[in-house]
Specification:
heterodimer; A: mainly alpha; ABC transporter involved in vitamin B12 uptake, BtuC; 81% helix; 0% strand; globular; B: alpha/beta; Rossmann fold; six-stranded mixed beta sheet; three-stranded antiparallel beta sheet; 25% helix
Chain lengths: 289, 255
């Protein structure tokens, strides 16, 4: 038993793990908050699309950083922030314009994002292994500067997502009624898309671009099995997300797995448990009444 | 609205619609399915673009200048609660939002509970909408509009699926609200008969009757049985007013 304690004490005193844990907890709490709006708007897969676009941003950041003689990867997160926010806003505007070709335009953008990323990273002197770290998350490549940006953006997402939650909820839950109340629906929808884009970039170092969307959506899927109100669902999803982020990261450390994989598998395991337990809980509830 | 025209998907849905509503009037908008009633109120609220003419509320086209806080809308159906679990209280409280302010005013929860009580759902405030029947859901949508304490209430088939007793109670609640101007899309007057002062009848996207409810009443009930497949070239009975005769009015309300 004591050797386990020693092991964890050593792990937790490692600055690398401390940094990763901080980001995992923040991201775990912020991603489902944004995801709740996306699920309500039936845009659960938006995060995936943004993740694709962010990859080109990462590669562009590498390229520009290399051109400026900076350490490789310094500009990866800023590049991803710019590309993904831009991409998300364009996606939202195309969607709002209601053009029938919107679906196709999105598909082109997503594929272009992946292909552009793969091509540009080679030009910037990186390797496919560089990209894999961004696609699935990585503990060993997490630099202190990444943590500073991620933590700041994570707090920003939480702050904005919570203070504007009523407007975001109104725009997400009934667009027509909100418009007929004079609520600037397009603005709030663009803001929620931008928040989703920021979430993607904040999460990519730990969870990875391919699995970010799962962290936004799966905790919401778990939380809505047992909630009756929007805010309860959101709060529960945030707590579950943070728990999956923290615990998943420690599992990744223990078994030397990509952290994105262990975090998302843990979240999905939570969903399976909750879905299995639900009939039991329902029966107990109705028996009490 | 003046000479309003709406075109959707290349089809002309509404043509040369002109009418105005003065403060305090309670107007029923009647017509068969597909006559353009819903399209008309959606155009009025700026939810669909207007192809010709203009629609104004309180003297302003739907946009930033319109005093939205005075307006409340009850849509035929709402996507609220279809995705993430949403309680009746969540929905009604969000109904208080207007303009750029991102959160509802102080005391919004108490007001929302009051509005839910007005539609007889105070016990269900914290239940998720998925557990509500169609009629109960409609009452929540009505509470979401009433909580705004509007001067102008625009409702699209608010009583479909609502049981008779609740429908009467709702009309009572509306009748008890002073200085309320009301535009209600309806199939037939039903419980609204005693409340409405005026009726407008739509057919194939045009106004075929407009006047005191008692006068237009025959056209309303006629509607389900009488439909001329020849379309717009139908003969007018004497009491039918042709659209151009209704004149150059704007739908507006001045305090």
């Amino acid at each position: 038993m004591s050797q386990y304690w020693d092991y964890w004490a050593r792990a937790l005193s490692d600055p690398l793990i401390q940094r990763a844990l901080l980001v995992a907890l923040l991201v775990g709490a912020a991603a489902p908050l944004v995801g709740t709006y996306l699920v309500q708007r039936r845009l659960a897969l938006l995060g995936d699309g943004i993740g694709h676009v962010a990859l080109t941003g990462v590669a562009l950041g590498w390229l520009i950083g290399a051109g400026m003689g900076l350490a490789p990867g310094t500009l990866a997160i800023p590049g991803a922030v710019v590309a993904s926010v831009l991409g998300a806003v364009i996606i939202e505007l195309v969607r709002a314009s209601g053009r029938t070709s919107g679906d196709l335009a999105l598909a082109l953008m997503f594929y272009g994002g992946i292909a552009g990323g793969a091509a540009l990273i080679k030009v910037a002197g990186g390797t496919s292994a560089t990209l894999v770290a961004y696609l699935f998350g990585s503990l060993s490549t997490l630099a202190p500067s990444d943590v500073a940006i991620s933590a700041t953006l994570g707090l920003l997402i939480l702050a904005v997502g919570l203070t504007t939650r009523w407007a975001l909820f109104a725009a997400a839950s009934d667009e027509d009624f909100a418009k007929a109340s004079g609520v600037p629906v397009r603005f709030w929808n663009v803001l929620s898309a931008a928040l989703a884009a920021l979430t993607v970039t904040v999460s990519m170092r730990v969870v990875g671009l391919l699995l970010v969307s799962a962290l936004m959506i799966v905790p919401v899927a778990v939380a809505q099995l047992g909630s009756r109100s929007f805010w309860r669902t959101m709060a529960l999803a945030s707590v579950l997300g943070a728990a999956a982020g923290g615990a998943g990261l420690m599992i990744a450390y223990w078994y030397d797995l990509p952290p994105g994989a262990s975090i998302v598998l843990l979240a999905i395991a939570l969903y399976a448990l909750a879905a299995a337990a639900r009939p039991l809980v329902d029966r107990m509830r109705s028996a009490r009444q | 609205m003046v000479d309003l025209g709406v075109t959707l998907g290349g089809h002309r849905i509404l043509e040369d619609i002109s009418f105005s509503i003065s403060p305090g009037q309670t107007v029923g908008l009647f017509g068969a399915n597909g006559s353009g009633k819903s399209t008309l109120v959606r155009a009025l609220l700026g939810l669909i673009p207007v192809a010709a003419g203009r629609a104004e509320l309180f003297g302003a086209a739907p946009g930033r200048k319109l005093p939205w806080a005075k307006v409340a809308y009850v849509p035929q159906a709402s996507p609220a609660g279809a995705g993430v679990p949403t309680s009746a209280l969540d929905v009604v409280q969000a109904g208080l939002l207007t303009g750029w302010r991102p959160w509802p005013s102080r005391g919004s929860k108490a007001r929302a509970l009051q509005a839910l009580a007005a539609v007889g759902l105070e016990d269900r405030a914290r239940d998720t909408l998925k557990n509500f029947s169609g009629g109960q859901r409609r009452r929540v949508l009505l509470a979401r509009a009433l909580v705004r304490q509007p001067s102008l209430l625009i409702m699209d088939e608010p009583l479909a699926g609502v049981d008779a007793a609740s429908a009467e109670a709702l009309v009572d609640a509306l009748a008890a609200t002073p200085d309320l101007t009301c535009l209600v899309v309806l199939h037939e007057p039903g419980p609204f008969e005693r409340y409405l002062t005026r009726g407008i009848v739509l057919e194939d996207g045009q106004i075929v009757a407009d006047g005191p409810l008692a006068e237009v009443r025959p056209q309303v009930t006629d509607h389900h049985h009488h439909h001329d497949p020849a379309g717009p070239h139908r003969s007018h009975t004497p009491e039918l007013a042709a659209p151009h005769e209704i004149g150059d009015h704007r739908l507006e309300e001045r305090p």
